[in-house]
Amino acid sequence: MFNNRRSLAAIILVFALTLLIFSCKEEETAVEDLYLPDLNTLFEGYEQLEQTEAYASFAEKLVAANRDLKSSEISIEAAALFHQAGNEDRIAPLLNSAIDNGMANPKILSKFKNLNLDQNNKEVKRLNRRLDSIQKKLKDVEHFSMEMESMNQFWDYFERAKGDTANARAILKEFIFQGPMELRDFYAVRYNNIDNMYGQMINGSPNYYSYLKKQFNPDSLTALKSKTTRWMQNFKRIYPPAVFPKVYVVPGILNSGGTATEMGMFVGGDMYGKSENMPTDGLNDWQKGAIMEFSALPKLTIHELMHFQQNYGDTENLDKVIGGVIVEGVCDFLVELCSGEVLINDNLRYLEDPANNTKILSDLRKDLMTKDFSRWLYNGDIEDRPYDLGYTMGYLITKSYYENQQDKQKAIIELLNTNDFASIVKGSAYSQLLN
Length: 435
Known about the structure:
Number of helices: 21
Shape: globular
Distance between the termini: 97 Å
Radius of gyration: 24 Å
Low-confidence stretches: none
Helix content: 55-70%
Strand content: under 5%
Number of strands: 4
């Protein structure tokens, strides 16, 4: 009798636990109750922070806004603001939270200038152990993988949203919360809000996205992964400290081919659908020109990998044109070095004309030490010259610097870690830009 009662009690307990588990899952999937911040609105007052110095209160605002999204990028931004406010005790817990949510940059602490953490603190000790572990993993080329799950899962949500435009925003929100973890960070760095997603994917160019679905197939992806891995192995030979983060191929909103984040590299799969049959309705002129063929994906991946290697000490000039062109240009140069394929593009052909070359060098000399990027980077709407000429000028400067140095490995270390961007220009064939 006792055994029967005990068995019955066990059955009841198992049943109760099962109900509890299912109820928890039910709560987890109640997407309509989750808070998804509009980051365009959230960051409206960001530029005024230096005047107000309200760093801590803005950091608290970010922490609250991130409660359901759990983006590692937002956690890191909040930690940076607490650092500026002098609240050092808030940094390690936020960075540990960022690691929980996918952050994979072992050098993240180097981004916090004059950081003074209590090394006896439990959270700090835990953080250091985890960063050491990440560093060991990322040194192995085998750690590299191209994660396609976001693209694979996207299509069902897209078809539903396209077929039910009244509820499309709610369906896209489901995609953010129910899809792979990396979508949370991509939302933070590129989507920013649901309206941006809806505006491009559903309202702007749905025919292009429907067409794009056919471009991503397992066979073509396997070949691209193999080529990218070979080039990464070449890079490891010429730059032993190299690290190899994950590459996440995600459905973007036609505004970026690739983005390096603290989680890894994001590649906008939407930017790799070019073909003769590509529908162009709903695409602007920049998008029509910027969309590349699927075969271009390995070079873009390597370019973004180089951003993950960069660790510059010249913080004074990092946000000036001199920093911008070197940061982007060295990535293009190292793609050439790793792949063995010499860079050929329309910008280089434009600069072959002596008159164009003279004008561009003159303009760059004027802008080099300013923060006016309008003629050089991220300027798809410029009319008097090809867009993104800063990439090309940075490529020419850094390639020339490398060729001028006897110790090539040391030159690569300097190109990726310099404390003085001007020294790169001075060591190249373009030193006249500093006159």
